[in-house]
């Protein structure tokens, strides 16, 4: 009998800039919340109730549908010890799972290595966006990083294998003085050649794709469309990653309008993405994680909020057990982090541990580098 079991796929959407969790999943009946945010507190008539205590921001209606279906997990009080308020450092910590030291390898780079130890498939991991996120970086692990799937190709404008190889050699000469020519050339030739192979394969995805849904023209909308196209093309991709526009969620000013617009786009796009996969009977083996590097401060600054600590994260998928995980952090003065920030109670590595063990069937400790209690959302 031929097996029809599909390999599990992990998709990740990083919300860059530090999403304001307090105005995303709102403590609707908490007087301390409204006292702390005289200008930014979301009024109750602008909320979609989750329960007596919490509500979604009104722009998140398309996501609430998955909550009602029992397919959306909401992680409350997410963070890590000794929170960094630097975008770069905090995102590095999420990427490498190393809050105490400067990590060089990404957790998803290790995942790709475990899933495909000999790099048989150059498209096991794909990123959509500029540059390669640290989460996907690991020496010897090829990851295609795509700016625009419709026109993608690393050096694909250069025809002929010899000319492409010559171009890679030029890159090697540029970087080798600082690191050493041998190591650089090996890395660039291996990953560069693999990326070229991936480019040629990925370029075929749009022509293989038809859909009844229309994604928004925003970066998030188009990148999530690219993720759907790649998944539906059947390339065997197991890890798909994208990031919202750089620091878009860094709402120091004009937050009320900006935050509403951001979540309107993200919520509608995720709904479009899930609907697209469902229409193609291809949603059953995909779990989507979306997160931000930290939350925002409890007290507003007049028109926005400054960098905080604990935040919220989400997972959606057909196998997700919808619910609230973790505890909503206290807004009481004596229970805050120094500086007026929410204390975390759910380590983000616990979410990763669950995804690694219960979704991808991998050894979480070997990838994360430490042991963490799982969260029972799968």
Beta-strand segment tally: 12
| CATH class bucket of the largest domain | Alpha Beta
Task: Using the 3D structure, state the CATH architecture of the largest domain.
Answer: 3-Layer(aba) Sandwich
User: What kind of oligomer do you see?
Assistant: single chain
Q: Tell me about the biggest sheet?
A: 9 strands, mixed
Question: In what range is the share of β-strand residues?
Answer: 5-15%
* Helix-and-strand structural type: alpha/beta
* SSE arrangement, N to C: EEHEEHEHHEEHHHEHEEEEHH
Number of domain units: 2
Report, as a whole number of angstroms, the end-to-end distance. Answer: 28 Å
What low-confidence regions span 5 or more consecutive residues with pLDDT below 50? 153-160, 174-181
Average per-residue pLDDT, rounded, comes to 89
CATH topology of the largest domain: Alkaline Phosphatase, subunit A
Task: Describe the model.
The chain is an alpha/beta fold and about 375 residues long. It folds into two domains: about 10-150 and about 210-370, Alkaline Phosphatase, subunit A, CATH 3.40.720; about 155-200. The chain has helices at about 30-35, 60-70, 85-95, 105-115, 160-180, 180-200, 220-230, 255-280, 350-360, 365-370, and strands at about 10-15, 25, 45-50, 55, 70-80, 125-130, 145, 240-245, 285-290, 310-315, 325, 345. The strands form two sheets. Strands 1, 5, 6, 7, 8, 9, 10, 11 and 12 form a nine-stranded mixed beta sheet that branches. It is globular, with a radius of gyration of 21 Å. The model is unreliable at about 155-160 and about 175-180 (pLDDT under 50).
């Amino acid at each position: 009998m031929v097996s029809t079991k599909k390999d599990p796929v992990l998709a990740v959407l990083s919300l860059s800039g530090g999403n304001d969790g307090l105005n995303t999943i709102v403590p609707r009946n908490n007087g301390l919340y409204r006292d702390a945010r005289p200008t930014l507190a979301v009024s109750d008539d602008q909320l979609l109730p989750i329960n007596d205590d919490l509500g979604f921001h009104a722009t998140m209606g398309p996501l609430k549908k998955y909550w009602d279906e029992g397919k959306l997990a909401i992680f409350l009080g997410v963070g890590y010890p000794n929170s960094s308020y630097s975008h770069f450092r905090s995102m590095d910590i999420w990427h490498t799972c190393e809050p105490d030291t400067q990590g060089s390898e990404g957790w998803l780079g290790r995942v790709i290595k475990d899933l495909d130890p000999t790099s048989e498939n150059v498209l096991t991991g794909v990123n959509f966006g500029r540059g390669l996120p640290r989460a996907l970086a690991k020496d010897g692990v090829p990851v295609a990083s795509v700016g625009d799937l419709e026109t993608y190709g690393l050096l694909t404008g250069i025809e002929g294998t010899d000319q492409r190889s010559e171009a890679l050699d030029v890159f090697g000469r540029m970087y080798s003085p600082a690191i050493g020519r041998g190591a650089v050339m090996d890395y660039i030739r291996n990953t560069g050649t693999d990326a070229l192979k991936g480019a040629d394969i990925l370029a075929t995805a749009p022509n293989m794709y038809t859909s009844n849904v229309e994604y928004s023209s925003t970066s998030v909308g188009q990148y999530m469309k690219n993720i759907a196209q790649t998944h539906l093309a059947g390339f065997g991709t197991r890890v798909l990653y994208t990031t919202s526009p750089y620091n878009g969620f860094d709402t120091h000013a004009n937050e009320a309008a900006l935050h509403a617009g951001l979540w309107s786009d993200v919520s509608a796009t995720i709904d479009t993405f899930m609907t697209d996969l469902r229409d193609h009977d291809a949603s059953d083996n995909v779990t989507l994680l979306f997160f931000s590097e930290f939350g925002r401060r409890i007290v507003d600054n007049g028109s926005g909020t400054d960098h905080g600590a604990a935040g919220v994260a989400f997972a959606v998928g057909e196998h997700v057990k919808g619910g609230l995980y973790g505890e909503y952090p206290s807004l009481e003065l004596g229970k805050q982090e120094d500086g007026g920030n929410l204390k975390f109670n759910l380590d983000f590595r616990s979410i990763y541990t669950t995804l690694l063990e219960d979704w991808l069937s991998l050894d979480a400790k070997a990838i994360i580098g430490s042991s963490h209690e799982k969260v029972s959302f799968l």
